[in-house]
Write a structure and sequence with these properties.
single chain; 145 residues; mainly alpha; 3 helices; 94% helix; 0% strand
Length: 145
Amino acid sequence: MTDQVSETVKNEVQPVSSKGKAGLVIAIIVAVLLLAALVVGIIFLAKDPAAASNVRDIFIILIALQMFVIGVALIVLIVQLAMLTNLLQNEVKPILTSTTDTVNTLRGTVRFLSDNISEPVIKLNETLASLKKLSNLFHLKNNQD
């Protein structure tokens, strides 16, 4: 039983490709470099409070610029959403309504054709087939006598 489980686990585990291994190694290297840069930056800023103040001011400006960009992106998103809503209401909804009307008309046409053409033809064919079978039976009986 345990052999079957271990075999199943071995079959389900897929080997990591060389691209996956390279990406993992690069990600680890980048993480280590960022951590090292953070440690060096903290040590540097702890020794020089004036530089720390300048760096803090620069980061505040960068965050303000980032908030401005996010605000613009949010406004663009809202405008796009309004345009999509307008498109759905004014263009897609009439198309769907027209399609529904067409399907209903087609349904009525098919029902009319079925009631007035198909059913009478089928009944006529049934009648003709029974008459043909009846006539074949009479011919067989007459030929036997």
